[in-house]
Description:
Elements: H1 22-44, H2 50-56, H3 60-91, H4 96-111, H5 114-122, E1 130-134, E2 141-146, H6 147-150, H7 153-179, H8 182-190, H9 195-225, H10 237-248, H11 251-285, H12 293-296, H13 301-311
Antiparallel strand pairs: 1-2
Helix pairs in contact: 2-11, 3-4, 3-7, 3-9, 3-10, 4-7, 5-7, 7-9, 8-9, 9-11, 9-13, 10-11
Amino acid sequence: MSQDPAHRPSIHDVKPIAVPKIGHWIGGTFLTLMGVVFLQVLITNKNMQWTVVAEYLFNGAILRGLGMTLVLTVLAMVLGLAIGIVLAIMRLSGSQVFRAASWGWIWFFRGVPPLVQMIFWYNLALLLPEISIGIPFDGPKLFSWPTNDLITPFSAAIMGLAFTESAYAAEMIRAGIQAVSTGQTEASATLGMTRGQSLRRIVLPQALRIVIPPIGNDTISMLKFTSLVSVLALPDLLYSAQMVYARTYQTVPLLVVATIWYLVLTTILTVLEHSVEHRLKSDFRGTKPHKTRKAAGLLPRRLFAAQNEGAK
Length: 312
């Protein structure tokens, strides 16, 4: 016998009953147990020597190495992005020579590991004892310098990191530019803009919204890649920790110190990346961002204004 429709319960009054998920309970219990065991090992293991960790966490040598790590990260990203923008524009050029040169650069530096590049650049004097500027093919030399005076551990590290980043950044920026509708460039052309003005004022600001998230991930990766420079005896964070435990034989505590600082820096970069990404999405949708005013202030207001104008 069917129920009277007038006495049927409303669908809004019916509360759905969740189906118990045994797999979630088992997996959650296992992961919680593993986390507790891991924390117990960290806290109770005397070999961790937390007093030594606290002693060297703000040690002068460690902080100087931390500063070197930040300098390497910033310089490598700035140079890599600058070269990457040029390479991306060359890849989209109508000139076959530009496209071939850009493709060759990206193919080479994306295929050779940064550590191999650093060692190669540091030993460049074995291949070219002297770097000169002048007329090629045995012509007169205008300026010349000994290679060992130019290629220091610092410059070799910057070249290896920046050239690797430029190859990856070029592909990301190229994809961002191609994601912008061709109607944008056609509309700018009808307004009398040149191709360069259209690229600078219309296309690139919109492409940045697409490119910034992967560039943020690249920045975090670059921060960790800087630890490779320890093979060049460049006093970054890891090498500074190695120099300390080479004297004190306290290997694990000093590695824990370096780990803590790497985690702090990557956490800060991750928060900044998410804040900027949220700000860009909010500006695109026309909504007010929440809790991102401080992070948004790190970027020029003209950038966001240009993006809004391009989106319209």
